[in-house]
């Protein structure tokens, strides 16, 4: 019976991806790259570009946050949908590394805005955008740290990982949604600071930024749709099934749920 189950899992693990999944993933990547390109175009056309040692230092902030906490974070969430037949540990490492890159890039963006405020004598952390941004950044770091401790560090038991996994998945999606909302708040704030009442007159910068906002929302919807399709989840690998059987008494018979 056990051999038959392992054989079935082995064949399932090599099953081809659902027919529509590659198209949705490709579409999400097209949206994500368009978001990054549009952010760069907005900063280049209407904000003077990017430089660290000048008044343009502030522009490092939105670009880094979009690349790190939107695009790369979204891609990190999709790793378990894209790499369906690779070894689980390899997929975990890639998932964790993408989050590391996203965190480092976001950290650069955070340093840029605080340094810019310090040099120009501006107040910090007074707006809703800044409060949400700090919350997202702290949650993102804690989520990565706890995830590393449970899923990559060898000390955590299999049963503990299984119990924590649903929370990890939930908070990952929640932080991604909060990142998108914070980006939209920041975009609106930047437009109101510069355009003021001109924003209501369909200024070209305002129109382009509105398009960027719609692209941000669309990328988020695409990523979350892929994540929430139950039939697109990564199939359990034979090694996971064997591990589940070995630790059956610890997990009360539950097999490792796929991400």
From TrEMBL:
SMART domains: B561. The chain crosses the membrane at residues 21-45, 65-83, 95-114, 134-156, 168-187, 207-227. Residues 27-228 form the Cytochrome b561 domain. Its main location: membrane. Keywords: Cytoplasmic vesicle, Electron transport, Heme, Iron, Membrane, Metal-binding, Translocase, Transmembrane, Transmembrane helix, Transport. The keyword Repressor does not apply. Pfam families: Cytochrom_B561 (PF03188). One of its GO terms (cellular component) is lysosomal membrane. Its cofactor is heme b. GO terms for molecular function: metal ion binding; oxidoreductase activity. It catalyses: monodehydro-L-ascorbate radical(out) + L-ascorbate(in) = monodehydro-L-ascorbate radical(in) + L-ascorbate(out). It is found in: Cytoplasmic vesicle, Secretory vesicle, Chromaffin granule membrane. It is a multi-pass membrane protein. PROSITE patterns: CYTOCHROME_B561 (PS50939). PANTHER family: CYTOCHROME B561-RELATED, TRANSMEMBRANE ASCORBATE-DEPENDENT REDUCTASE CYB561. Transmembrane reductase that uses ascorbate as an electron donor in the cytoplasm and transfers electrons across membranes to reduce monodehydro-L-ascorbate radical in the lumen of secretory vesicles. It is therefore involved the regeneration and homeostasis within secretory vesicles of ascorbate which in turn provides reducing equivalents needed to support the activity of intravesicular enzymes. This is Transmembrane ascorbate-dependent reductase CYB561. The lineage of its organism: Eukaryota, Metazoa, Chordata, Craniata, Vertebrata.
């Amino acid at each position: 019976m056990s051999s038959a189950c392992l054989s079935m899992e082995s064949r399932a693990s090599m099953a081809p991806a659902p027919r529509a999944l590659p198209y949705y993933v490709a579409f999400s990547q097209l949206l994500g790259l368009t978001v990054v390109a549009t952010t760069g175009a907005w900063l280049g056309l209407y904000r003077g570009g990017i430089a660290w040692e000048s008044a343009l230092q502030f522009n490092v902030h939105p670009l880094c946050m979009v690349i790190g906490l939107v695009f790369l974070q979204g891609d990190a969430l999709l790793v378990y949908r894209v790499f369906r037949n690779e070894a689980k540990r390899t997929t975990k490492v890639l998932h964790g590394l993408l989050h590391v890159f996203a965190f480092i890039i976001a950290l650069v963006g955070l340093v840029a805005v605080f340094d810019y405020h310090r040099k120009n004598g501006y107040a910090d952390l007074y707006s809703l955008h800044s409060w949400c941004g700090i919350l997202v950044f702290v949650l993102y770091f804690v989520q990565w740290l706890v995830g590393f401790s449970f899923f990559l560090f060898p000390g955590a038991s299999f049963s503990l990982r299984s119990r924590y996994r649903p929370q990890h998945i939930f908070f990952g999606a929640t932080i991604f949604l909060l990142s998108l909302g914070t980006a939209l708040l920041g975009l609106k704030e930047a437009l109101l600071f510069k355009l003021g009442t001109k924003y209501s007159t369909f200024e070209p910068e305002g129109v382009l930024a509105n398009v960027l906002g719609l692209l941000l929302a669309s990328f988020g919807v695409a990523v979350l749709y892929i994540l929430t399709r139950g039939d697109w989840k990564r199939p359990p690998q034979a090694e996971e099934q064997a591990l589940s059987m070995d630790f059956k008494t610890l997990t009360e018979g539950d097999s490792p749920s796929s991400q």
